[in-house]
């Protein structure tokens, strides 16, 4: 009896099917990438489904606590710059700390699309876990909620201090326009030169 094929992994047909499903899934993800409102609306629907499920069954609080800790971790990555001066030192580009520093766009450690994908996947996994009684560990949920709120406040306080120290805002509101005094004075001088040239030619 030949046992050489035992334990070699999935068959070629199964591997091909998994690869096709993975490519199809990635195709739809790429299609969703340029549509943030639709993506976040879908996330809100998934989150509401999870909240309603937990409310109806009145359980799975430990799953919700783990989900909250994971969301807090994702949020820190979403609000943090890709290059942190406190961690990376002076290597590579750093955030501007003075008004005279060169403008550098804010680059997140965790991009918006990856943040959306990770948080949506986390809610989906947590929703599936609510159908297995083994994850419904009996706990006193007010203590978990209080502990999570304390962690959230302390973490956000540290993050806001970091933002104030290095003078960056992790959100952009439209395209910035630079209309400083030098630009305005140069435009005024250019207009005066054009007027003088027009008068001399007339």
UniProtKB/TrEMBL annotation:
Biological process per Gene Ontology, one example term: retrograde vesicle-mediated transport, Golgi to endoplasmic reticulum
Record's subcellular location: Membrane
GO cellular component, one term: endoplasmic reticulum
Keyword Iron on entry: no
UniProt membrane topology term: Multi-pass membrane protein
Keyword annotations: Membrane, Transmembrane, Transmembrane helix
Superkingdom classification of source: Eukaryota
Annotated TM spans: 38-56, 62-80, 138-156
Keyword Membrane in record: yes
Pfam family, one: Rer1
PANTHER family, A to Z: PROTEIN RER1, PROTEIN RER1C
Function: Involved in the retrieval of endoplasmic reticulum membrane proteins from the early Golgi compartment.
Similarity comment: Belongs to the RER1 family.
Stated name of the protein: Protein RER1
Organism: Amborella trichopoda
């Amino acid at each position: 009896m030949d046992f050489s094929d035992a334990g070699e992994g999935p068959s070629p047909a199964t591997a091909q099917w998994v690869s096709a499903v993975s490519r199809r899934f990635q195709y739809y993800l790429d299609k969703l990438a340029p549509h943030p409102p639709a993506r976040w609306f879908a996330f809100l629907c998934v989150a509401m489904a999870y909240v309603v499920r937990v409310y109806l069954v009145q359980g799975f609080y430990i799953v919700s606590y783990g989900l909250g800790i994971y969301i807090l971790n994702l949020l820190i990555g979403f609000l943090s710059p890709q290059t942190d001066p406190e961690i990376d030192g002076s290597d590579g580009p750093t955030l501007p700390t003075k008004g005279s520093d060169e403008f550098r766009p804010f680059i997140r450690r965790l991009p918006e699309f990856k943040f959306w994908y990770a948080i949506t996947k986390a809610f989906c996994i947590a929703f599936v876990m609510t159908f297995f009684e083994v994850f419904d560990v009996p706990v006193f949920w007010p203590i978990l909620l209080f502990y999570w709120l304390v962690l959230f406040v302390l973490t956000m306080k540290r993050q806001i201090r970091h933002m104030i120290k290095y003078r960056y805002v992790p959100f952009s509101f439209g395209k910035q326009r630079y209309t400083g005094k030098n630009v305005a004075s140069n435009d005024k001088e250019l207009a005066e030169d054009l007027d003088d040239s027009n008068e001399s030619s007339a």
